[in-house]
Specification:
By secondary structure, the protein is an alpha+beta fold. The chain folds into three domains: 69 residues, Arc Repressor Mutant, subunit A (Orthogonal Bundle); 83 residues, no CATH class; 89 residues, no CATH class. It is built from twelve helices and twelve strands. α3 packs across α4. The protein is elongated and about 70 Å long.
Length: 261
């Protein structure tokens, strides 16, 4: 009885933040508060009715606290809490770092857990399934005082070349490679590309960097031994790059014609 009596709204919200229960189920709340599941349902109803939490999926709640807009205005924080661990990557990370001006219609994240796309509060979150061996190269960032995991600049490029359909397509990724080439740690970029153990990725990255005047010889050993398409979604062209074993199926205008002169 004593435990139940002390469960004021202020106490519960403070405890949820202290224990980092940003996204939780009713059963998890019951365990945290040490109350029966029926009592936990009543508490959830009270908190939701007061606007301190919000349902995202059936039976799962996002902690908003006393300043709901602070959380709701931070889609990266929300997205990375719905599936944990997951990190913001692909087109979303390219835009965050200023490597592309295009703003994706959804937040894209890498995850080792299979998860269907989530829609919440007019936001869309896509979780791209990654092999655990490719789930690396991310760090903690903050927007305001709320943190989230995001790919490092180099890993954002590598992830996007690995799965370009999640970064606006190869043309958009090529722009990002050009914009990032003088801003990233090239040694780390090459290391991450090699660690992905994808010869196609190494060939595409090596070819693009070479086209943009950057020495990428470190990638040759890990590049493809047979020809691969530069853009995996398009038909082959009649242009072949022998050094990187790439079928160049993008036009000159698409690869570099958009650059400012």
């Amino acid at each position: 009885m004593e435990n139940i009596l002390k469960l004021s709204t202020n106490y519960i919200i403070k405890l949820l933040f202290e224990q980092e229960y940003y996204y939780f189920t009713v059963r998890e709340l019951a365990g945290l508060l040490k109350v029966p599941i029926e009592k936990a349902y009543a508490i959830v109803s009270r908190l939701e009715g007061s606007g301190f939490i919000k349902s995202v999926e059936r039976g799962k709640y996002l902690l908003l606290g006393f300043e709901p807009e602070r959380v709701l205005s931070n889609p990266f924080f929300i997205a990375s809490r719905i599936v944990y661990p997951s990190y913001v990557s692909f087109w979303s990370a390219l835009n965050f770092y200023g490597f592309t001006e295009q703003v994706p219609a959804m937040v894209l994240l890498a995850s080792v857990r299979k998860k269907t796309e989530v829609e919440f509060n007019s936001l869309r979150f896509k979780y791209v399934l990654m092999n655990p061996g490719k789930f690396f190269g991310y760090r903690k960032e903050k927007l305001g005082d709320l943190d989230f995991l995001i790919a490092e600049e180099e890993k954002a490029i590598v992830d996007s070349l690995y799965l370009p359909e999640n970064a606006g397509g190869l043309v958009e990724v090529a722009k990002a490679v050009y914009n990032a080439r003088d801003k990233v740690d090239l040694e780390k970029l090459f290391s991450y590309a090699i660690d992905m153990k994808s010869r196609s990725l190494s060939s595409r990255l090596g070819y693009l960097l070479s086209r943009f005047g950057t020495d990428a010889a470190m990638l040759l050993e890990s590049s493809a031994s047979e020809y691969i398409k530069l853009d995996p979604t398009r038909e082959k062209s009649r242009i072949w790059d022998k050094k990187w074993h790439v079928n160049v199926n993008l036009g000159e205008e698409e690869i570099s014609g958009w650059r400012e002169t």
